[in-house]
Design a protein that fits this description.
Blueprint: E1 2-8, H1 10-15, E2 21-24, E3 32-42, H2 44-57, E4 84-95, E5 115-129, E6 136-138
Parallel strand pairs: 1-3
Antiparallel strand pairs: 1-6, 2-5, 3-4, 4-5
Length: about 140
């Protein structure tokens, strides 16, 4: 099955149903089922930027956001698995710009100048450790 590697905390936000957009600089012809692979590295700047936006998002409250403790201990909430498959989504569409979203929940996550991968029907799966790759890659489950 096809998979996409996404750094945490973004991978968890996708499979937990909070983030319906993944921003990429490239497109794919693939549509349909897509496994979400949590990369081996954690996006600390992204996490702290997200933590600052929690109250503004409306759909996320501070209690919803898994806690992470910055270095040196590097302890993570149980939901932040690294280096494996954590869920599945349906890749429904890829849109070229934010204007096509008009006013929607998806526009909250869209970054200007990127390709917006619209992900629907997220499902969290039992963690399966496996190496990730760049681009869309095949995983045998």
């Amino acid at each position: 099955m096809k998979a996409l590697s996404v750094r945490q905390p973004w991978a968890w936000l996708i499979v937990a149903g909070y983030k319906g957009i993944e921003n990429r600089t490239w497109e794919t012809r693939h549509r349909g089922p897509l496994l979400i692979h949590a990369g081996k590295t954690f996006d600390w700047p992204g996490y702290f930027r997200l933590a600052g936006l929690v109250g503004m998002r409306g759909r996320l409250s501070p209690g919803d956001l898994p806690q992470a403790q910055e270095k040196p201990e590097l302890r993570f909430d149980e939901r932040y698995k690294l280096g494996g498959i954590i869920g599945r989504v349906e890749l429904a569409d890829i849109r070229a710009d934010m204007d096509r979203f008009c006013v929607s929940d998806l526009a909250d996550w869209a970054e200007i100048g990127m390709r917006h991968w619209v992900m629907e029907r997220p499902v969290e799966l039992e963690f399966v450790a496996c190496p990730g790759k760049q681009g869309i890659f095949e995983v045998a489950l």
